[in-house]
Design goal:
Radius of gyration: 20 Å
Number of domains: 2
Mean pLDDT: 97
Largest sheet: 7 strands, mixed
CATH superfamily of the largest domain: Medium-chain alcohol dehydrogenases, catalytic domain
CATH class of the largest domain: Alpha Beta
CATH architecture of the largest domain: Alpha-Beta Complex
Helix content: 25-40%
Strand content: 15-25%
Bound molecules: NADP nicotinamide-adenine-dinucleotide phosphate
Low-confidence stretches: none
Structural class: alpha/beta
Distance between the termini: 10 Å
Shape: globular
């Protein structure tokens, strides 16, 4: 089968992309609790970019096939997975095995979602990570009974799902983008309070809005100075939930009075731990609920285009040049 191979990590993103090679490889054989999936498509997420740069939490033994997420059909099963044969699936895998940027991949049954027949396989390629992440983040805001939240990297797909879920729950959102042109774009999609982090009066506007709307939860995917500025803008008894590190920089600039006298806290979120903490059957219920939203058309991942395994470098360059335009799907 054809697959993409990474042989060395490289912090320089262009060199990291150029290091991705198309290779022929033996198709894997599923073990007892595994299945063989014929891939339909896989996205490139920021975690995949960080992975090939060697800056992500997951470091695999190389050479390896990258790709943590994707969709496809089960074409072969193991001893305990016969019931999955012929099923449409969406998977998210971070174990030390080959990933989804290939014609086929082997996955443990615990790491996949057997989908309803009506799920679109392009949408399914991006189903297992971002919608669940937004759901988990909104659950934190829900527990805090937040009437308003703040989020940065607001042009991202996670942020878009947060907006969809917030709207359903009557929660106001203060969206922060880094490019001026994305302010109008988000507003045209119905976002009500969009700020650009690079405007001169950004901090002032954020402080004012946060106070007016009483923002008590913030979702940070960026880190650096921006995360500190957001933390400082939150009202007392608020929580900044860190779930991404797009700037690659540590959080700076936190006013000490917030944690000491205003009961403000910083926490972290990651999908795998969130999923592991759910009670029996809860993940399946959430999955069903989210799938129904996709099937009805209420939820959708923005997809800007696609590429093939042999053109992956160009395809991913397009994604990196304009991430807010949507995902680029890798089709084998
Ligand atoms: N913790 C978890 O379990 C978990 C799960 C899923 C996702 N995540 C994180 O969630 C974030 C969004 O993921 P996604 O798949 O939704 O992203 P995405 O749709 O691919 O979009 C990435 C967004 O990040 C923006 N961005 C990139 N670098 C930035 C920077 N240095 N400062 C500010 N904005 C920046 C991009 O804006 P431009 O268009 O301006 O480039 C774009 O809007 C990522 O950090 C990802 O790692 C975390």
């Amino acid at each position: 089968m054809k697959s993409i191979q990474i042989t060395t990590y490289n912090k320089n993103i262009i060199r990291a992309l150029l290091g991705l090679k198309l290779q022929e490889k033996e198709t894997g054989i599923p073990g007892n609790n595994e299945v063989l999936v014929k891939m339909h498509a896989a996205p490139c997420n920021p975690s995949d970019i960080a992975f090939i740069q060697g800056t992500y939490n997951i470091v695999k033994k190389l050479p390896a096939v990258p790709g943590f997420e994707g969709s496809g059909m089960v074409v072969e099963t193991g001893k305990n997975t016969g019931h999955l044969l012929g099923k449409k699936i969406s998977a998210f895998v971070q174990s030390d095995t080959d990933g989804t940027w290939a014609e086929y991949f082997v996955v443990n049954a615990d790491d996949l979602i057997a989908l309803q027949d009506e799920m679109d396989l392009d949408q399914a390629a991006c189903f297992t990570v971002n919608p669940f992440t937004a759901y988990g983040l909104m659950d934190i805001a829900g527990q805090r009974e937040s009437k308003a939240i703040v989020q940065n990297a607001a042009g991202s797909q996670v942020a878009a799902f947060v907006r969809m879920m917030a709207r359903e729950n009557g929660v106001k959102v203060i969206d922060i983008v880094r490019k001026k042109e994305h302010v109008g774009l988000l507003e045209s999609q119905g976002a009500q309070h969009v700020l650009c982090e690079n405007e001169r009066d950004f901090e002032e506007q954020l402080n004012k809005l946060s106070k007016t709307l009483q923002a008590t939860t913030a979702f940070d995917a960026v880190g650096g100075r921006l995360a500190g500025t957001i933390f400082n803008a939150l009202v007392p008894d608020a929580e900044l939930v860190v779930y991404g590190g797009l700037s690659g920089k540590p959080i700076e600039n936190i006013h000490l009075m917030g944690p000491i006298f205003q009961n403000k806290i910083i926490s972290g979120f990651n999908l795998i731990d969130w999923k592991a903490d759910l009670g029996g059957g809860e993940f399946e219920k959430i999955s069903e609920k989210l799938q129904n939203k996709f099937i009805s058309g209420a939820y959708k991942t923005q997809i800007q285009g696609s590429t093939t395994l042999d053109k992956i470098v160009n395809g991913l360059r397009n994604y990196i040049a304009g991430m807010s335009a949507g995902k680029v799907l890798i089709r084998p």
